[in-house]
Amino acid sequence: MKVAGKLDIDTPTAPRADGSDIASAYVSPLILRALAERPGAAIPWIEKVSGTLLMADISGFTSMSERLAESGREGAEMLTDIINRYFTAMIDAARANGGHNLKFGGDALLLFFDGVGHAERAARTALEMQRENKKQPGLRIGRERHKPSVSIGVHSGEFWSVAVGEPGTRLQHVIFGDDVNRVVDAEGAASAGEVMATPEMIGADWDVEHRGEFRLISSVRGPGQRAQPSKEPRIPSGIDIEAYLPPPVLWALRGHGSASAGEHRGVVVMFIHTTGFEGLAETQGPEAALGQLQEYTGKLVRLIEQYGGFLASNDIYVEGVKFIVVFGAPIAREEDSANALRLALALDSWLGQSGLALRHRIGINGGNAFAGDIGAPYRREYTVMG
Hints:
Elements: H1 20-24, H2 29-37, E1 45-59, H3 61-68, H4 72-96, E2 100-104, E3 108-113, H5 118-135, E4 139-141, E5 144-146, E6 149-166, E7 170-176, H6 178-189, E8 195-197, E9 206-211, E10 214-220, H7 247-253, E11 263-275, H8 277-283, H9 286-307, E12 310-316, E13 321-327, H10 336-354, E14 359-376, E15 379-385
Parallel strand pairs: 6-8
Antiparallel strand pairs: 1-3, 1-6, 2-3, 4-5, 6-7, 8-10, 9-10, 11-13, 11-14, 12-13, 14-15
Helix pairs in contact: 3-4, 4-5, 8-9, 9-10
């Protein structure tokens, strides 16, 4: 890795001299695994992955953030501590069952399980996460009590794991496919405190209740399939992963400040919901979908650099992928709002003339939000929340 310096976070083990153990915490385990197995693989690449996805959508941090913002820096520090302890407990539950966290979606988690008994281990993890959520003490602010709640969807199948973007600048790990869409639908059917599964993954010994096309899981009986607790893959020395890092994290690793100090600040956030490549993968093959997604993402990265924002991450959606672009954190500029609009118009104009079969919808909003470095010591993300 071509980075140096120290990031102000707690780590379970001492980092290597090049900082790669710390940096690896910000990269999807599927990317780290691919880099370890194919260190010379060129960007872009695509591969099919089989297993079970677990999507956990957490509610409550937004209202908590809004109230704690009134306390200034002390409130931001308190919120950071609460979120980190919460996410660590949830990700620990997955790791104990051989699972990995692929993505943070603001205040959501996307977990992945593969190998023997992956569906059962994912279901057990989901139920354990709900039990863990009930243990969380919450926070009393004035007369209000704020406590997170979580709704969970699980689904087994196959999906595409993709690396796209501008090598040496900004790379993204994207996952998509019909089975990704199915886990989004399952989570959407779950209420707070529930675990909803697709019928394709239900085991014979599970206690379930029919809820339309989905199944509400109440218990998973039987001896169960055991797996070794998972550890995030470590990349070989000399493999460069800095292009996968969010810019605030990269700046911190280079010694230009700390990405970990959460704060409430004014930001402009852009969501770009991009679709069309899933249909291409089905009709013309995965390479056709990969080529168009690479061209689109590369253009997006270049425009973001031109207008002064940064590509924070991407997330799964009911179809396609949602790119998340941030202006105003960790550095604010006078024309952040105008530049966000200029970026949206330039991207939309380019797509209309590009000849690509892709489509997008763009939403932009400005306001106060929590921005900072969150997660467990071994799996983290720089995000905005609010």
